[in-house]
Structures are given as structure tokens and as C-alpha cells.
């Protein structure tokens, strides 16, 4: 299904300003670009664009309240500077499974002052020597990289996610 049509269906008779979460996973992006998403989504806090064939995030609208962005399994290799410009409150960014090859492509993320969690699993950049150390040095605002902090401690569910209000249903695996 095409991205614009999927957004239309996801609205379900709501206005874009009513939408807090938008999941567009596995739909088609024409020419590898984001389409149909506008600045009218003023209250959007979570956007998921997993496996939609994105090559670029250049068409991303300004979404001031967006806290979590899922972009895994796309073909993004550069152009991350748009994120700081359009998503000033972004806290969690998942770029796993993209075509990010070197540290310089991550440089623009320095401008995302609220970024706490970054996932880069299955990106070529993770094969670089001292990858984790280099990313934490480049992005001092980060708390978690690929689900682990600088001391290699795993993120708890509540730290790794934006949805603080739902964390009471994650307790079943903590039983002793």
C-alpha cells in the first residue's frame, strides 16, 4: 500500500492534529521519500516508518513534539541533518538496518540535544574499530546506543521507551 493512502486510512476520521502515534511500517514510499506526512501532525510523538524503502528523510515535515522515530530497515545512507532541524525534541532514533557506513554520517545528530537513545544495529558503521566509544564521544547527549549505556549496561524497558504511561505491563519478565 502506498504511504499517502496508508496515512489516510490511519487517520480514521480524525484530524492530523489528533494523532499522537502513526505506524506506517511496510507501506511503499515512492522514490524512497516520505509522502503524505505534513506539518498538520502537530501532536505526533511517535512515528514508525520501518521497511518502507526510504532512501532519504528530506521530505520529513517539522514535527516539534516527535519523541520517537523508527526508521529501521530502510536504505538511508546520509542526510540526517534534516532530523535536528525538523525534530527538535527527538529522544529515540532507530536507524537499524540502514546504509550508514561511517561516523561522518552520524555527525548531524550532535544537534539533537534531547537524543537519549540511538539504535544502529546492522548498519556498516557498527563494524568500525571503537564504534561504541566513537559514537558516545561524538554524541555526548546519548544515554543508550543499541540498547546499552556507555558502561555496557542494558537499557531497562522504561529507559528505552518513550511510553512512560504503559510501563506497568512490562513487569511479567521481572519475576523472581
Give a description of the structure.
Strands 1-2-3-4-5-6 form a six-stranded parallel beta sheet, covered by helices on one side. It is 15% helix and 10% strand. The chain has 176 residues and is an alpha/beta fold. It has one domain: Alpha-Beta Horseshoe (Leucine-rich repeat, LRR (right-handed beta-alpha superhelix)). The radius of gyration is 16 Å and the shape is globular.
Short description:
The chain is of the alpha/beta class. The protein contains four helices and six strands, in the order αβββαββαβα.
Topology:
Blueprint: H1 3-11, E1 21-23, E2 46-48, E3 68-70, H2 81-86, E4 92-94, E5 117-119, H3 131-138, E6 144-145, H4 157-160
Q: What is the CATH domain class?
A: Alpha Beta
> What's the main sheet like?
6 strands, parallel
Sequence of strands across the biggest β-sheet: 1-2-3-4-5-6
Q: What average pLDDT do the residues reach?
A: 90
What structural class results from the helix and strand content? alpha/beta
CATH H-level name... which superfamily?
Ribonuclease Inhibitor
Shape: globular
- Care to count the β-strands? 6
Q: How many separate helices?
A: 4
- Any idea how many domains? 1
Write the element-wise H/E pattern from the N-terminal end onward.
HEEEHEEHEH
* N→C terminal distance: 45 Å
**CATH-assigned fold name:** Leucine-rich repeat, LRR (right-handed beta-alpha superhelix)
Question: Fraction of residues in helices?
Answer: 10-25%
Amino acid at each position: 500500500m502506498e504511504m499517502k493512502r496508508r496515512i489516510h486510512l490511519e487517520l480514521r476520521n480524525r484530524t492530523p492534529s489528533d494523532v499522537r502515534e502513526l505506524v506506517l511500517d511496510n507501506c511503499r514510499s515512492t522514490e524512497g521519500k516520505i509522502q503524505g506526512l505534513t506539518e498538520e501532525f502537530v501532536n505526533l510523538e511517535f512515528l514508525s516508518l520501518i521497511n518502507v524503502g526510504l532512501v532519504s528523510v528530506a521530505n520529513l515535515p517539522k514535527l516539534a513534539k516527535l519523541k520517537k522515530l523508527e526508521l529501521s530497515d530502510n536504505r538511508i545512507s546520509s542526510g540526517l541533518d534534516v532530523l535536528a532541524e525538523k525534530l527538535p525534541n527527538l529522544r529515540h532514533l532507530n536507524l537499524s538496518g540502514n546504509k550508514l557506513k561511517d561516523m561522518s554520517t552520524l555527525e548531524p545528530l550532535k544537534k539533537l540535544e534531547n537524543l537519549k537513545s540511538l539504535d544502529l544495529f546492522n548498519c556498516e558503521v557498527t563494524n568500525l574499530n571503537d564504534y561504541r566509544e566513537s559514537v558516545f564521544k561524538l554524541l555526548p547527549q546519548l544515554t543508550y546506543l543499541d540498547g546499552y549505556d556507555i558502561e555496557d549496561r542494558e537499557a531497562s524497558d522504561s529507559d528505552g521507551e518513550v511510553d512512560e504511561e504503559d510501563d506497568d505491563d512490562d513487569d511479567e519478565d521481572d519475576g523472581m
